[in-house]
């Protein structure tokens, strides 16, 4: 773990017979009877060739490009890699969206003055690379853009940051937590109405919890020369107008559409 020449590692885990196991592999092995690292003062003074700068007392490697043939593959059946997201990033987007949707649907999401009303039939979202993800990628890829517009029938949210030390995964995670965090700016009424305050202060939260949405797709772009990174996500839910209901209020997961039932883990969502 502390071998100075190590520049990469990967881990996997398994639950075998009630006992958890974690296995990690490192790309460099220590040399017998040799120092694990070179002691120096000041720290990080002599970074090796191939590294860029020193951050938090560690020499930073140049950006790592993941292998394109690594499994599991991203869910891009028609255009592999259309959203330029790894499988892990796609799953992160889907799971974070559904986690927040479930909090809202079950009434445990805290708004400005209380908690959100429960949702009668809020769908669990599936990740869509081929349409939504590809469209999000085309928008995010334009580093000269100052704003982003969704396609017809799609609802778009984006998150920009000038913290260039964040990885693509971290930018994506910050995007979802920021969008959900807008809920603290508003008091969602007992009908979950998209009122003028939600429109002004929590528009991305509204996209995140559209009850009739079934899919999302995202992309992240590191626009380093322009000094920012951006995450763009699109949802297929119906665009709300002022005073529309974001979702149908009622007992959580009591009104799923025909052929759907409550999620086995996220009990407030229909699948």
Automatic annotation (TrEMBL):
Residue span(s) of domain SCP: 92-237
Any Pfam family hit: CAP
Database matches in InterPro entries: CAP_dom, CAP_sf
Domain of life, per lineage: Eukaryota
Protein name: SCP-like protein
Organism: Ancylostoma caninum
């Amino acid at each position: 773990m502390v071998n100075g020449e190590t520049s990469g590692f990967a881990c996997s885990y398994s639950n075998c017979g009630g006992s958890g196991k974690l296995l990690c592999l490192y790309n460099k092995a220590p040399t017998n009877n040799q120092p694990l690292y070179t002691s120096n003062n000041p720290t990080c003074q002599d970074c090796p060739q191939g590294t860029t700068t020193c951050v938090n007392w560690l020499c930073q490697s140049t950006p790592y490009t993941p292998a394109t043939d690594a499994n599991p593959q991203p869910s891009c059946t028609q255009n592999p890699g259309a959203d330029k997201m790894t499988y892990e990033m796609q799953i992160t987007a889907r799971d974070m969206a559904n986690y927040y949707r479930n909090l809202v649907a079950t009434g445990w999401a805290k708004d400005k003055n209380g908690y959100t009303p429960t949702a009668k039939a809020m769908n669990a979202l599936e990740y869509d690379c081929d349409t939504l993800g590809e469209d999000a990628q085309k928008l995010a890829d334009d580093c000269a853009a100052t704003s982003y517009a969704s396609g017809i029938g799609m609802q778009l949210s984006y998150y920009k940051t000038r913290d260039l030390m964040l990885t693509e995964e971290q930018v994506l995670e910050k995007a979802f937590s920021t969008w959900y965090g807008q809920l603290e700016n508003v008091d969602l009424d007992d009908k979950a109405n998209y009122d003028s305050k939600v429109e002004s202060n929590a528009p991305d939260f509204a996209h995140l919890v559209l009850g009739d949405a079934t899919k999302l797709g995202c992309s992240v772009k590191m626009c380093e020369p322009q000094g920012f990174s951006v995450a763009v996500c699109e949802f297929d839910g119906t665009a709300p107008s002022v005073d529309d209901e974001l979702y149908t209020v009622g007992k959580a997961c009591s009104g799923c559409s025909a052929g759907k039932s409550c999620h086995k883990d996220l009990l407030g969502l229909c699948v």
